[in-house]
Amino acid sequence: MSSFYKYSPIKNLKNLEDEHSLNNLFSSRVAFSRRKSFNDLFDSQVKFIIPNKHEIKQTYKSLSGKSKLDFKHMFIKGSGSAGVDNLKSRINGILDSYLFYCLTDNPRSNLMWSHYASSHNGFCIEWDGNFVKPQKIKYQQSIPEFDLLQFIKKIFGLLNDTSLLEEAWAKLNIKLDEWEYEQEYRFQLSNSMESLIVEDMGNIALVQAQPEWVKSIVFGYRMGQDTRNYIIDRLPSDMKYKEIIICSNQSELKVVNYSA
């Protein structure tokens, strides 16, 4: 994929100086999110599959030495529910820690412009796919399941086919079918990029990007000329601009090069 797009709002056209989306754009900063900031209640959530007593007992029999004693203390001694609850908290902690940037490969979505770009008054950032390489979201009818027994076996060395972090990240790339119109991709903030964090505010973190990662700015169909000029005046002179127009069939959007 050569380009990915971020729909961005402009909430107060009369006070552009205080618009977070514009200030971040001018300073080449990107707002990465953690899952608790999402408006969708089910986004990045998982359904935990709890092992039954027989599965716990069979797993216990497969262990030896200190691992067997640790397992007994965690999942057999008493009710065992405390061990399961602690494990669920551990997994949720991993899922809560991930920072990612949500993108799409479609800059012509009427719904996306309406929902995420202030009813066509906002803009799209076109990111260069040579630098920004996100993963495509998978859509399905229900939230993903997380098999705690498999997780337990991996912790105690009985399984090693997939790393725990890779499995956790895969769960964050699943959404319900009703969101498929977004054609979403997610760009994870890797460990090597943590030094680029400018400010971590909990659910959101500002990350310093590089200007050359941006290929163009796409103006929304309803964005006024004053707002367009405001953006152009504050970005590098070699920045490219595009705009949304309505196709001749009056039912589709089109991206074309913009000239003032």
What does this structure look like?
The chain has 260 residues and is an alpha+beta fold. The protein has one domain. 30% of the residues lie in helices and 26% in strands. It is built from 8 helices and 15 strands. The strands form 5 sheets. It has a 5-stranded mixed sheet, with helices on one face. A 3-stranded antiparallel sheet has the order 2-12-11. Helix 2 packs antiparallel against helix 3.
Notable features of this structure?
single chain; 260 residues; 8 helices; three-stranded antiparallel beta sheet; five-stranded mixed beta sheet; alpha+beta; elongated
How would you concisely characterize the structure shown here?
With 260 residues, this protein is α+β, with helices and mostly antiparallel strands. The protein has helices at residues 20-26, 53-61, 65-76, 81-97, 110-116, 148-155, 164-171, 225-234; strands spanning 3-8, 29-33, 47-49, 100-104, 123-128, 135-136, 138-140, 145-147, 174-176, 184-188, 197-200, 204-208, 214-219, 241-246, 253-257.
